[in-house]
Amino acid sequence: MKKTTKYLAAVPIMGAVILMGLTNCTKHDQVLDLSTATTPTPVLNTDTLNVVRGTATLASQGDNAARWDGTIEAVWNSAPKLTVHATVPDLGNNTFTGFVGNSTDISLRAMYDATNLYMLVEFTTPQHNAMSAQWYFNPLQTDMTKRWAQEATASSLTNLSPDGSYRPPFAQDQFVILWNIAHSCQTFDALSCYAACHVASTYGGTVAADGGIMYTNGPNERLDVWRGRMLQVCNTNQLNDCFIDDGSSISYGESGALNKNEVHGDWQLLNGPSASIPVQYQSAGKLVSSPGATRVYAADGGFSNKQTMPISNKPSKKANIPIWVIPAALGTNPYNTASRSSAIMLSDTLAGGLAKKVVAVDSFGVLTLSDATTIDPRNAASSFYYQQIGAIDGANCIPGSIIGTYTGSRGDVTANAAYVGSGWRMLLSRKLSNGPSGTNDAVNDVDFSTLEDMPFGCGAMINRADNQHAIVAGLHMHFKK
Known about the structure:
By secondary structure, the chain is mainly beta. The protein has helices at 2-9, 188-191, 230-236, 346-349; strands at 48-53, 82-87, 103-112, 116-124, 135-137, 148-150, 174-180, 223-229, 240-244, 263-265, 282-287, 290-298, 302-304, 307-311, 314-321, 324-325, 336-337, 340-341, 344-345, 356-361, 367-369, 374-375, 388-389, 392-393, 401-403, 414-419, 423-431, 454-461, 470-479. The protein has two domains: 2-127 and 172-300 and 407-479, Immunoglobulin-like (Sandwich), CATH 2.60.40; 306-399, no CATH class. The chain contains four helices and 29 strands. Strands 1, 2, 3, 4, 7, 8, 9, 10, 26, 27, 28 and 29 form a twelve-stranded mixed beta sheet that branches. The two termini are 40 Å apart.
């Protein structure tokens, strides 16, 4: 979906560091597990992830997909573990304010068979964050147009809880990997993600963009990006498969500007208007083979659960409210069940689905649904269920996102995730080859089928960070033949 693509293009993916730090980013002390007497003698200061032969089992993709419980199969015992320490850097421009110094240990294991590459990723974080921009009702708000509001997804000192204390953003944990497509980015092998991070300059200009910008330095340079937003991973078993270029694929972000992020979702299926996709989730898109041509894509992935509607008894005023809700008994959470995690699924909004559309709102914040029932967040029965409660939200607060499966090349990477108390475990799987016999996009996907050494970098967003991410660069993948 174009709106989703623009959102992804508007934020840094792998981040930036001050230039003086770039020369020190290619080696990392390994964090060792010495808890048992059988632990082998460790190899220190390694940056290599050794990939051994083996086949992992992953839950398949789809709306309301089956969830992985976090159990690690015995086959992974043969895969060497590389553990690195990642820290959120201080860029010196306030972009990562509130998160600088946050750190996490990231452990990586990898296997391959005749068809697929498999990865087991573990990273520590004390919080389970898989929500984004959920809706709540503020009974103290005197402005009738703002009684329903969404939780902030970015850190701000003006974002306060009902008791007046600082309220952290409600952003989901994430994990990202960058790969060099066909070794096209000449500096990536040495610098990995930093090769595309232009914090100290703009492309063709003199003023640095706040927080830096992500792009390559020419039309023949492309990077493959796998971004795992936990809200998407937990509900559809997918990462978002993206790419970074110099902007030439879609005319420099469709604006002509070169000093902006050039991170784009891989191309979706060109399947035109679809009866199975609501009209509001269809949007124009562009073909990689014909950047200037507008086509219609059936939207996929994540969508905003937000609409603007005139207030029924004050039609000169408008309010932002949810589009869809799942009616449920007060005090229960219909959005966090065995079939969904902190989200409304696209399938819920289709005919016969659990969700009901919001068709009206009055000046008191009462929502009228498509089945003529109402949600009155003010009454005694509603209590705090639709409100902010301390640092959390009430059980019936409404998700800000509608989640659906990615189509086409955006869905090339299968991903399972489970929070295990001390952090996340993720299983990843992707075809070794790109193109017809492998992934859906030979241009924007890296090819592993030659089994040659592959440089990469990775990062994690934790503690409710959206893009203030801990970074690890200078890693290499080595296939054991």
